[in-house]
Specification:
The structure is a homodimer of 421-residue chains. Chain A folds into 2 domains: 7-227 and 401-412, Aldehyde Dehydrogenase, Chain A, domain 1, CATH 3.40.605.10; 234-382, Aldehyde Dehydrogenase, Chain A, domain 2 (3-Layer(aba) Sandwich), CATH 3.40.309. Helices cover 42% and strands 20% of the residues of chain A. The first copy, chain A, has helices at 7-25, 30-46, 48-64, 69-75, 79-94, 133-144, 158-174, 191-198, 212-221, 244-256, 272-278, 281-288, 329-340, 353-362, 379-382; strands at 102-107, 113-120, 123-128, 148-152, 182-184, 205-209, 234-238, 265-271, 292-295, 306-307, 321-327, 345-349, 367-372, 390-391, 399-400, 407-418. In chain A, α10 packs parallel to α12. Chain A is globular, with a radius of gyration of 24 Å. Chains A, B: One of its GO terms (biological process) is L-proline biosynthetic process. Chains A, B: Its EC number is 1.2.1.41. Chains A, B: Its main location: cytoplasm. Chains A, B: Catalyzes the NADPH-dependent reduction of L-glutamate 5-phosphate into L-glutamate 5-semialdehyde and phosphate. The product spontaneously undergoes cyclization to form 1-pyrroline-5-carboxylate.
């Protein structure tokens, strides 16, 4: 199909079909949407052999291209990973329908009764990279919120995404919903991304889910609004009033549980007074766990710490590496994070409520934490069932983006012939 | 100042100052912000002679340029209009502070306590045309929500806006808030608008408030996100179950109370069965009130109705003109509005709950109404104190944009050393 594909025309057709489907989805019943999700989950399980076969072909090509181990890991599907997708779809089906919820309701002296109710956004474009499971998660979350989805996966996961998408379409068909409710762009051609970014008439918002270069391209080129998903330059500040044991537990987990996720800690900021009084046993823990700790001058006396360079501040390693430096109290930490952070997730370890309040008040990350592992920065852990990603922008969606964040609202105003004086 | 103004450098300085001010405003107390608003209100009243003098100079220039009567009316300030600005500022000061409000709060089995709290957005750029009062309204709403504002008024209202802005700065000074919290672009040069549209580092969102060509330019050129304020192509559908008296009252008010506002009715859709049974006395009312009614073929038999052309559907007159046509029931009305509407405000006149429910469900205007005048499409009438405009987009802000819609949120997560399994 790739060779003879007229991108502009095909993308326009996909957009028009999505817009038409979105109009129908806007008032599809909760039962119908959940039926589609359950049927899709069943289809994923029933057709797992087919999916794994498609994935094996993708993996073979990827290996032949010499693609890196981390990327191969993201690309690979196993029966366990298919099961996780199935469970994800069922969890989304089990959640309450966000559409139609009355967000606020009030009366006015003029005789008006006003309700603010949740509505779908319309058409959502999701541009992602090599993880094939995003096909299922993103498609399902969009559908749950009554939106049509146009999914554009990475070229390496093309076959896997297509096999998964076929199961989502099975689900839509079983529930008598329009098949264009979830479309997968049927080409590897990167020009399709460029088209999507400009389709202001047919796409209401673009969600880029992937690495820095993908997100940067989307933000630079898009005419369609974007829910920015920047990298997670996650800081942990160890305050002078930190509980040493909590600091050790939280820091080890935040860095090492999984190093490749956006909530993994990337930089430790340690209050100078704390360090002078109590040292930094959590740094020894990290080194013992195989983490490379890149410290500033004051920390290089610690055994195993290697020197940090200027490029280590504000860096997302997504690997067994962490930067570390001393700061002058919470204000020093705030200053560092404002300068180098990415407004994703930042954490303070302290028993002092005033310090925590200052950290929460003066920083503006989507997620601010106190005395908990930053690895909790996740829609599932927040109780949202699933997430399409962690938004770092400030408009509309912020933090974990679940079905609720994929909605808009409208005002319904009723009266009995009221006129304005 | 205009002649020697280095637009690029000056706008960058304005942006950087706004960003710095926004950081301080983000945690300014409610008392401090309200004090600034009250002091600004007082300054506006104390310095009204100066404001009216500046406005007289603007009016003189505008008349010399041969500017139209409607625009002169928007530009003109009177003591009454200054008093309205003063009252607007006081009303905004009296409203609750949206910042810091806990929007949701819950516990997780993992031991996490999660709060979602309102925050300011940051820096808001407001681009408006000839109404000088927008300077006060927009500046005050941005401040109330803890945002820094960069205001760019039309060149005709330059001196008036500058005099009003000086009073806002008096208020900021009285409350010891940064003066860069509300800045007015100090040049008439249109290149300043172009700079603002591209200042993604310094401006978080642009609110264009003005006519179709301004909004179109902003939407086409902006790299900064925009709260779209499209025109109000407001429809009223008279259903077969309409109460004839309510229809007459509502339609006359919706068209004639003020024809120049975005909530004024522009198109009547009349159910064919209703028309055949009951006629259209509301059309006779409109004609008697001096409104030009442009009807489709079926309506031209009515005395005084002139023929509508294809260009009359989907048109915002903002004048004593209305289009009118017969449709086949509520579905015919929905079809017409989907095709020609602007997602601003649309109204159904019916006593039939099922018809109203269908109209509310299948249309996606920011404001949908039943049996009330569309002239109520206004932030003040909704109880928001004041508005910066009516947003017709679907992301973030929608409908009347008051202080609450000028906020974002963040998640505050607390625990007692919780780590992720």
């Amino acid at each position: 199909m790739d060779g003879t594909f007229d991108i502009k025309a095909e993308m326009r057709d996909i957009g028009a079909a999505a817009r038409a489907a979105a109009r129908e989805l806007a008032y599809a019943s909760s039962e119908q949407k959940d039926m589609a999700l359950s049927a899709a989950a069943q289809a994923l399980w029933d057709r797992r052999a087919e999916i794994l076969e498609a994935n094996a072909a993708d993996m073979e090509d990827a290996r032949a291209k010499g693609i890196s181990g981390a990327m191969l890991d993201r690309l690979e599907l196993t029966e366990g990973r298919v099961r996780a997708m199935v469970e994800g779809l069922r969890a989304i089906a089990a959640q309450p329908d966000p559409v139609g919820a009355v967000l606020a309701e009030w009366d006015r002296p003029s005789g008006l009764h006003i309700r603010r109710v949740r509505t779908p956004i319309g058409v959502i474009g999701v541009i992602f990279e090599s993880r094939p499971n995003v096909t299922a998660d993103a498609g399902a979350l969009c559908l749950k919120a009554g939106n049509a989805a146009i999914l554009r996966g990475g070229s390496e996961s093309f076959r896997s995404a297509r096999a998964i998408h076929a199961c989502l379409v099975d689900g839509l068909r079983a529930a008598a919903l329009p098949q264009a409710a979830i479309q997968l762009v049927p080409t590897r051609d990167r020009a399709a991304v460029g088209e999507m970014l400009g389709m202001v008439e047919h796409i209401d918002v673009i969600v880029p889910r992937g690495g820095k270069s993908l997100v940067a391209r989307v933000q630079a080129e898009a005419r369609v609004p974007v829910f920015a998903h920047l990298e997670g330059i996650v800081h942990i500040y160890v305050d002078r009033a930190a509980d040493p044991e909590k600091a050790r537990r939280v820091i080890l987990n935040a860095k090492t549980r999984r190093t490749g996720i956006c909530g993994a800690a990337e930089c430790l900021l340690i209050d100078r007074a704390y360090f002078e009084a109590a040292g930094a046993p959590f740094i020894a823990d990290l080194i013992a766990a195989g983490v490379e700790v890149r410290g500033d001058d004051s920390l290089q006396a610690l055994p195993g710490v290697v020197p940090a360079g200027a490029e280590d501040w504000g860096r997302e390693y997504l690997d067994s590496i962490i930067a570390a430096r001393l700061v002058e109290g919470v204000d020093g930490a705030i200053e560092h994070i404002r300068r180098y952070g990415s407004n994703h997730t930042d954490c303070v370890i302290t028993e002092d409520d005033a310090v925590a309040a200052r950290f929460f008040e003066r920083l503006d990350s989507a997620i601010l934490m106190r005395n908990v592992s930053t690895q909790f920065a996740d829609g599932g852990e927040f109780g949202m069932g699933a997430e399409i990603g962690i938004a770092t922008g400030k408009l509309h969606a912020r933090g974990p983006v679940g079905a609720e964040q994929l909605t808009s609202f409208k005002y319904l105003v009723e009266g009995d012939g009221a006129i304005r004086a």
